[in-house]
Amino acid sequence: MRAQRNNIFFGIDFTLVFLYVLLVLFGWMNIYAASHSDLQSDLFDFGTKYGKQLLWIGMSFFLTVLILLIDAKTYEKFASIIYMISLLSLMCLFLFGKKINGATSWYDFGGFSIQPSEFAKFAAVLALARLLSDRQYDLKLLKNQIKAFIIIFLPAIFITLQPDPGSGLVYTAFFFVLYREGLPIYYIAVGLVAIALFILTLAFGFNTVLLCCYVVLTLFILYLRYYRKISLKFHWLKIMGLFAIIGLFVFSVDYIYNNIFEQRHRDRFNILLGKNTDTRGVGYNTNQSVLTIKSGGFSGKGYLQGDRTQGDFVPEQDTDYIFSTIGEEWGFIGTSLVVLIFTLFVLRILQLAERQKTTFSRVYGYGIATVFFFHYLINIGMVIGLFPTIGIPLPFFSYGGSGLWGFTILLFIFIKLDASKSYEL
Questions:
Q1: DSSP per-residue codes, 119-138
Q2: Domain range holding 41?
């Protein structure tokens, strides 16, 4: 047993590691395709984007070894400290951060940049897992719900203020983790209804949506009263309050949209809702991305044969829009394969999470599964025009050292936690 404990690879899930390596290597191949040129063909030219990404991939493998060398209990023991350091790194951005593409999201160290929001994700998951692992913690109690919400929303607020609302939005995925651990489902239901009402109000207007809501609610109340024979005698104040809340929310949509959203966000929503058609301005990236993916057809044009990719038709094609490169050069077959691998990757994490012997490990597993799923769902939806562009990268595919390292740490801490249960057998 002592020999096994000294072997850092004992007990690790090689299926998950294999899927990770597959995603990272395939991601690098597409970064190379999106950023190389005939004048820059050396794979080890570290002055190029693909060269830098290759360097970061090599360093990430050393990072995985370091994570596996650390005792699994350390992550639970120091979860709160890691979370506080992460919050401090986000707050200090407003004093010492570097602005890139309109967002103060980076620290610059002599040409080397770090984006702390990519590392805040694993810190938040650790803190949430530590909180929920307390045996006395009951998520049905309001005071405990508030504690969990604070852990989730603090980093989200700091990230959104940078401003980087796309990365801040990722933290809403943790509500599904809380639901798994006992949070009443009406929180998620209310959130989904609010999103639906917001979009419907933008699309059809205040009067139409409010009238439809009131008609539906009235019919539902009549159904409960006369067909299900449920007495509403003591619930009229709550019912009237519900009508008032819905009315105020729908009424506030225009104010939020016109006064809180920035113009670029309004433009993207208008394009998504079909109010504006802009293939040259704000909608240019998405339009070119969709055309690039369509041009790949069923089997693609072949690796490094994508004329639209080589012609730089899609801005940010090696970062947020990397999926369009896959679509053009690998076609429907390649994009379907990527979706399949990501799906198997997330399902494997969930399967392992459900097998964990401790609440801490289980919550952490569910937390990282929701982060990965949210990222790949929103990114792919954004690239094919289903969602507005909000700047969420595709894990292991989008160019960037901070993103790659952040996702690697996120995953391998769970691999270490999962492996540690083998010592207890």
A1: HHHHHHHHHHHHHHT-TT--
A2: 2-86+118-133+279-424
Output the pLDDT for position 234. 56
Instruction: State the Cα–Cα distance between residues 176 and 244, nearest whole angstrom.
Output: 28
Q: Indicate if the pLDDT at residue 1 is higher than 50.
A: no
Q: Is 327 domain-assigned? A: yes
Task: Based on the fold, state whether residues 393 and 295 are members of the same structural domain.
Answer: yes
**Nearest of 349, 262, 337, 345 to residue 296 by alpha carbon:** 337
Q: Helix 79-91 crosses helix 142-160 at what angle (to 10 degrees)?
A: 40
**Both 341 and 370 in a single domain?**
yes
Domain count across the chain: 2
The pLDDT assigned to 343 comes to 96
Q: Is the dihedral of CA 368, 371, 373, 379 positive or negative?
A: negative
Question: Taking the CB of residue 32, how many other CB atoms lie within 10 A of it?
Answer: 21
**Of 261, 291, 308, which closes a domain?**
261
Is 6 a domain residue?
yes
Count Cβ atoms within 10 A of the Cβ of residue 357 and give its class: 0-12 exposed, 13-18 middle, 19 or more buried.
exposed
Strand order across the 103-109 sheet: 98-100, 103-109, 112-114
pTM for this one?
0.88
